[in-house]
Amino acid sequence: MTTASAPQALIRADHICVRFSGAEVLHDVSVTIQPAEIVTIVGPNGSGKSTLLRALLGIVPLTKGRVSRAADLRLGYVPQKLALDRSLPMTVRRFLSLPRRVSDDRAKAALQRVGLEGVDRLEMAALSGGQLQRVLLARALLTDPQILLLDEPTQGLDQPGEAAFYRLIEEVRSDTGAAILMVSHDLHVVMAASDRVICLNGHVCCEGTPAVVSSAPEYRALFGLGTQGALALYRHVHDHDHSQPQDHAHDHTCHPSHGHQHDHV
Ligand code: ADP
Ligand code: MG
After folding, report:
1. What's this model's pTM, rounded to 2 decimal places?
2. pLDDT digits 0-9 by tens, 152-183
3. Which residue of 12, 106, 161, 240 is most buried, as measured by CB atoms within 10 A?
4. Residues 6 or more apart from 97 whose CB is under 8 A from it?
5. E strands within 5-71?
6. What domains does the chain contain, in order, with CATH numbers?
7. How far apart are the C-alpha atoms of 79 and 179, rounded to whole Å?
8. Nearest listed ligand to the Cα of residue 45
9. Is 18 in contact with 51 (CB distance < 8 Å)?
10. Which atom of ligand 1 is nearest to the CA of 45?
11. Residue 51 beta carbon below 6 angstroms from any ligand 1 atom
12. Which atom of ligand 1 is nearest to the CA of 26?
């Protein structure tokens, strides 16, 4: 679907609400993703990040609002949890041909793109965490997507692995022009190359440009060395406290322009 109001946008959610068995998981969320943007979603566990991606994909029913996608939009999606039985034998090459067969050339090119040449005959179960994430990314790239939706793609990776994955994502964006919408597994760390960060907690708490890595010594120690800035800290200071038990997902007053703070390394 293309909307007259946003002909450029790849995906757009307008005031969407999602409810699961009575509980409102997303309330009045509006998000627009433009071509070639890198947008990172952060938020606590259960804040609706995965649900938002699924709503944008059109695989979750909305109780209010609407989602529009550009006509014939090519999407690549890497879900948070891979429904793959690791005990079943399956080579990387075969995995890349699921659910649709791809040619050897395309499979090879996709693996090359993610820096994994020559792993086609390895068993999926034999891959390291970092290799598995790259294979998942390679499979998502097979459709030549205009947008990649990646749900916590660096979960389980160590810090150099995460930095390397983020660098790869930047390369993919600059080589293919694909937009990236990624959920970060860490509330405080996002890709330095993120054009925009959306903080979600049932609603959009705040949203803005991360102005690269914090200067705080403890973060420098963790992320500042050896990564050439591929990892950034986006530290935002809430104007409201989510730890309060009486807090309800949509009772907050949000002040996007005051809701976050950026530091430079
Ligand atoms: P996040 O990705 O931020 O951790 P989720 O979007 O996975 O959060 O989940 C948000 C809330 O919605 C959680 O309370 C979760 O239990 C609930 N939820 C997610 N998917 C479903 C579903 N298919 N059916 C019922 N509840 C769900
Ligand atoms: Mg999730």
Report:
1. 0.80
2. 999 888 888 888 898 899 999 999 999 999 99
3. 12
4. 107
5. 11-20, 23-33, 38-42, 64-69
6. 7-74+145-265 (3.40.50.300), 79-144 (no CATH)
7. 16
8. 1
9. yes
10. 4
11. yes
12. 10
